[in-house]
Every structure is written in C-alpha cells, then in structure tokens.
Design goal:
The protein is built from ten helices and two strands, in the order H-H-H-E-E-H-H-H-H-H-H-H. The chain is mainly α and about 220 residues long.
C-alpha cells in the first residue's frame, strides 16, 4: 500500500515540477513533458539495470486482474475515472478554466483566471493519473518493466486527436477521447489478427496520426 501511495505521490511531484516550469517560464508543454519523460525513463532503466523487477505477491496482481460482478476491475477503474473527470470538465469552474486557458491563455488571464495555478494543477493531476496507470500496469504484468510502455504515448496522442481534441488547446471531450482510443485499440488488435508486420504497424499508426492532425487542422481553419 505504501509503495502504491509513494508511486502516485512521486508522480504528482514530477507533474508539479513540469507544470511549474511550463507555467512560470511559459515553455511549450510538449517539449518539457517529452524531455522529463526521457530523463525519467533513463533513470528507471539505470535503477533496474534495464531488467524487469519481478517477485510481486499474488495479491498485488488482483488489483488489475480481479473482477467485480463479472466485470474486470480495470474497466471499473476506467469508468470511475472517466465519470469523475467528465463531471469536472463539464460542470466545475476548474474544468471551464482549463478549456479557457487552452483556447486563449491571455484572454483567460484577463478574465481573472489564475493561469499558472490551473496549468500546474492540470500537470499534477495528469501525472498522478499516469502513476495510477503505472501501478495498474505493473499489477497486470506482475513485473516492474522500465520499457513496458515505450511507444504508448503515440497511441494516446492518436486517440486524443482522432477523438476531436485540438492540439492547439481549448477543444475536445473525454467522450471523444474514449471513441478515439477505442479506434486505436481496434486498429492495433486488427493488425495483429491480420498478421501485419510489427514494423508496418508503426508505419500505419504514424500515417493515421498524420492524417488525423491534417484533418484537425483543416477543421480548425474552416471554423475561423
């Protein structure tokens, strides 16, 4: 329990650092996030020597492998988190402030929104959720593998863009993101079932993201 709590707290601290730097110095969030991701991945590989850490108790695996009423716990966790954040984004001042900052940061500031505070908090929440996801993934594979999720960031970006999230900010819904991620998951599983070469799968995924970005940009310009 303490290890799980410590993981989520450390993740929040990382989000606080990246969010604080981004907000205070007005840096591009993608650059800061990718730079820290690379550094922390390298640290994880250094600590583990690049090898998976095994030997977890069987009870730890129940966190993600268990079921409740025949429904996998992972699905239940996902539904709970989505319900919470759909409510936050749609019905709270914090959610509206997040959209406002994404749409036009200067206008949000002039409207009285504490831009630095909200942006930093978004990073902290996002990072803590990544910590939770890391715990669930470790529980599922029963191993602490520092390379396990390499490349998944592209799937998440693709899911968000396909789901209607504007990479410039201010637009997007969690319902759309769910649909986008389902599409990416179906695409990935479909290619595996069809026996598509692993390298070719990366090519196809990259082209899908490329096409989604172009469509997103065209739609944005047509609304101007």
């Amino acid at each position: 329990f303490l290890a799980i709590l410590f993981t989520v707290v450390i993740s929040g601290v990382i989000g606080l650092v990246s969010g604080g730097v981004t907000a205070k110095l007005k840096l591009h969030s993608f650059l800061v996030t990718l730079a820290l991701m690379q550094a922390i991945r390298g640290l994880a590989q250094t600590i583990t020597g690049g090898y998976p850490v095994a030997g977890f108790d069987k009870s730890f695996g129940v966190i993600s492998a268990g079921t409740l009423g025949g429904i996998p716990l992972l699905v239940i966790y996902m539904a709970i988190f989505y319900a919470i954040f759909i409510y936050i984004m749609k019905f709270t001042s914090f959610g509206r402030a997040t959209y406002a900052i994404g749409g036009n940061e200067e206008s949000a500031r002039l409207s009285g929104i504490n831009v630095e505070k909200v942006k930093t908090l978004v990073f902290v929440i996002s990072s803590m959720l990544c910590g939770v996801a890391g715990v669930l993934l470790t529980s599922k594979v029963r191993s602490g593998d520092p390379t396990c999720a390499n490349g998944w960031e592209m799937d998440t970006i693709a899911g968000a863009i396909i789901g209607g999230t504007n990479m410039s900010g201010g637009e997007g819904t969690l319902w759309g993101t769910i649909i986008g991620l389902l599409f990416v998951g179906i695409l990935s599983n479909g290619m595996v079932l069809l026996g598509v070469n692993a390298y070719m799968q990366s090519v196809i995924k990259g082209l899908v993201i490329f096409g989604a970005v172009i469509i997103n940009s065209i739609q944005k310009r047509s609304q101007v």
